[in-house]
UniProtKB/TrEMBL annotation:
Biological processes per GO annotation: ribosome biogenesis
Protein name (record): GTPase Der
Residue stretches making up the GTPase Der C-terminal KH-domain-like domain: 408-487
Stretches assigned to the G domain: 25-146, 222-345
Keywords, in A-Z order: GTP-binding, Nucleotide-binding, Repeat, Ribosome biogenesis
Similarity comment text for this entry: Belongs to the TRAFAC class TrmE-Era-EngA-EngB-Septin-like GTPase superfamily. EngA (Der) GTPase family.
From-to range in the entire protein, with total length: 136 to 625 of 659
Domain of life the protein comes from: Eukaryota
MF GO annotations: GTP binding
Keyword Flavoprotein: no
Amino acid sequence: KEKNGNKKNKKVVDFTKIEIEHLPTVILVGRPNVGKSALYNRLIRRREALVYNTPDDHVTRDIREGVAKLGDLRFRVLDSAGLETAVSSGSVLGRTTEMTAGILSRTQFAIFLIDVRVGLQPLDLEVGKWMRKNAPGIHTILAMNKSESLDDQGLLTSESAEAYSLGFGDPIGISAETGLGMVDLYEVLRPLLEEYVLQNPSIKTDVADCLDPEDVKTPLQLAIVGRPNVGKSTLLNALLQEERVLVGPESGLTRDAIRAHFKFEDRSVYLVDTAGWLKRSGQEKGPGSLSIMQSRKNLMRAHVVALVLDAEEIANARSSMKHAEVVIARQAVEEGRGLVVIVNKMDLLRKKHKSIMQEVMQVVPNEIQTVIPQISGIPVVFVSALEGDGRLSVMNTVVDTYEKWCVRLTTARLNRWLLKVMSRHSWKDQATQSRIKYFTQVKARPPTFVAFVKGKKQLSDTDMRFLKKSLKEDFELGGIPIRIMQRLVS
Ligand code: GDP
Ligand code: GDP
């Protein structure tokens, strides 16, 4: 599992929801012929690019501006022909200075390109000097372009050491022509642009919380659901131990706000909408009524849904789930929640023949696999809430599911993985040349990934299933819903 030692909640910015004029701006700088235009074209994906006019006309004449797409990142990108003229002519001309100063004042980031094949040139040093003098507040990333022919060794040694001497930090190796290193560029840009957006509250977008799985203070929202009489209240009491229900109805609080809260191993756990069924429990005994279960809306508020089943009922019926339970399990998964199935009242089976207990322990996981075929390994816990042995096994499973659900895998790690996975499978569409260029996680809770597919056709369902299966196995993400989307790239 990823351990980055960051104890704070991680914010994840959705760049696709930011209006164009509020997107962070990145300017491409460098002497002529280093590949600025090539990189610009790659970033805006020319054909689908939205090029628009800026108010001052003399700016648009010399500077191209478009919206860059890099994975799920969006930013405005400027190709600095004006700056280039200024530097290459050896003197900074009045008009150009004025113009570039205007441009630089509304730019937050720069990518400084050099040509790794010819090494550092005097003009590169001049661009560096110019940037330091004129754009001291702009965060500059150094990129060694045309790196496609160099192996990793080459990049790590002489060229990057030389480039490092420019004073803009560690260079990254890219190729505007082949797309090499775009993942590294993404990895460097993402946190910088994200920080910029988060520090500018005027920029409207969706910010999702990705709670660090290592953070013990994360408020886990747990919904305990099930038909009447399966033992939800009894289980709740076992979970709460001496704490009981801590939060009662206070004046001004709606019923939705009534929440029970307890600690499990230093972790806060909130119970979602338990008040609803606590009140009615024991009164509504209608078989399988959904009224007492969580509404879909309430399920959405939960991170993990614990569905409680009655072991004795299963033993008697030789089948584990009633229709209402199947519905709620499916809903939980469709809504992207983590699902944990709890088979309660196991003590009643212990009094019976051993084979009955074994049968129940087989039937339940099999049936869950049948009704929710898209996820294998949904955890099933067998407990007796009455005898109080459920707390540890239930909560360990809930927490484990929650941590998987919150996981964030770095793009670098995913793409190292992708290389291995690509060689493991005979890809159906190899003939049509559809292959995955790169793979990135765009969201956690639940983990959501995008496969960028180069080619004319989307990957087949078989290929996508293989990809999902490998992802689940290799990163231990079994038992939770994960989503993979694909995007065709040219
Ligand atoms: P600019 O003057 O900085 O905008 O540079 P251009 O984008 O016009 O590129 C200059 C030349 O370098 C062109 O011939 C490009 O085809 C070539 N070029 C750009 N990027 C790469 C690259 O990553 N690899 C290689 N081999 N050539 C590149
Ligand atoms: P709820 O309606 O889902 O909240 O279920 P309750 O917690 O009110 O439990 C319904 C009945 O089942 C009560 O009589 C409980 O004592 C009993 N019960 C709950 N858990 C267990 C258990 O693990 N074993 C046994 N034998 N009975 C249980």
